[in-house]
Amino acid sequence: MKGNYTVWNGEEWVSQLSPLFPIGNRGFRYGDGAFETIRVVSGRMVFFSEHIARLRNGVNILELNCPELDDVFTLKELGLSVLKQNEINKGGRLRIWVVRAGEGMDHSIEKSVHFFMGAEAYPHNLYPEVSPRKAIVYPNPLLLSSPLTQFKSCNRIAYQMAARYARTRGFEEGLLLNQFGNIGDAVGANLIYSIDGDWFTPGSSEGAIPGVLKQWVQNSIQDSITNRPLRIEDLSKVNYIFTANVMAGPVSLVSVHMGDKTFHFPESPMVAKIRKELNKKVKA
């Protein structure tokens, strides 16, 4: 998040430029925590309950004690206060961090947490039409199906490596391989693709994070999306492929580059359909 926005640290409002915890904090040292980024439309938080459910799951997996997550209604009121404090009444993003408190080595059994909530403006209010992107596959496996891929961990190094690899080579999107050599996820987004008219997505067994928007698409738009690995050899059979996350919405991929091969795809008509229905939902 950029700019000098105001953060609620569980006790008071502080500037994001202020130190939030000591340098020896475990969240800083080891990425020992979880977070969620929530899309804001017209000053309202979108898919709030779904994000909190995933965050709670992560907190439980990490065996943390975060009482701030116990009451969704109170938490939502706090979120609205954070938006108001940062003067966000149109498009924005709200982020919640939960990191393990205390300092010391990586054998700590501390369960208490530092809780932070901040927000900043986003350039778009509703979901706009986004130009299709070209993607490149990071050449080495970065994903491993485990409990840590069931939520958004504060340790994002695998996704940062794929993002940096893509951007430094002129690509807008990076794709990550898993331990099986299949494409499991995109940087910050899930993948949905079609072969012979059927729709598929890499599931959690492939290292894909359970995306909030992907779940909504499966429940509300295209209930016949089946979990299936995206193997490299299948790319030549793919009809359409797009990414899905709650910030950008659905975005078509028109090419995927890996090694010395590039696979090309037309823009997916499903993207426009999802965007239309998504904007209806957030305006309701």
Task: Describe it.
- The protein has 284 residues and is an alpha+beta fold.
- It folds into two domains: 6-121, D-amino Acid Aminotransferase, Chain A, domain 1, CATH 3.30.470.10; 133-283, Alpha-Beta Barrel (D-amino Acid Aminotransferase, Chain A, domain 2), CATH 3.20.10.10.
- It is 24% helix and 31% strand.
- The chain has helices at residues 26-30, 48-61, 72-85, 157-167, 212-221, 269-283, and strands at residues 6-8, 13-15, 33-41, 44-45, 92-100, 113-121, 133-143, 173-178, 183-186, 190-195, 198-201, 226-227, 240-245, 249-258, 261-264.
- The strands form two sheets. Strands 7, 8, 9, 10, 11, 12, 13, 14 and 15 form a nine-stranded mixed sheet that branches.
- A hairpin with a 4-residue loop joins strand 8 (173-178) and strand 9 (183-186).
- The radius of gyration is 19 Å and the shape is globular.
- The mean pLDDT is 93.
List the helices and strands and how they pair.
Blueprint: E1 6-8, E2 13-15, H1 26-30, E3 33-41, E4 44-45, H2 48-61, H3 72-85, E5 92-100, E6 113-121, E7 133-143, H4 157-167, E8 173-178, E9 183-186, E10 190-195, E11 198-201, H5 212-221, E12 226-227, E13 240-245, E14 249-258, E15 261-264, H6 269-283
Parallel strand pairs: 7-8, 7-14, 11-12
Antiparallel strand pairs: 1-2, 1-6, 3-4, 3-5, 5-6, 8-9, 10-11, 10-13, 13-14, 14-15
Q: Please state the second-level CATH architecture of the largest domain.
A: Alpha-Beta Barrel
Q: If you average the pLDDT, what whole number results? A: 93
Any idea how many domains? 2
- Percent helix, as a range, is 10-25%
Secondary-structure class: alpha+beta
- What's the CATH C level of the largest domain? Alpha Beta
Looking at CATH, the homologous superfamily of the largest domain is D-amino Acid Aminotransferase, subunit A, domain 2
Biggest sheet: strands, sense, closure?
9 strands, mixed
What is the H/E order?
A: EEHEEHHEEEHEEEEHEEEEH
Amount of beta strand? 25-35%
**Cα distance spanning the termini:** 28 Å
Uncertain segments of ≥5 residues (pLDDT<50)? none
What's the helix count? 6
Query: What general form does the structure show?
Result: globular
Q: Total strand count, please? A: 15
By CATH, the topology of the largest domain is: D-amino Acid Aminotransferase, Chain A, domain 2
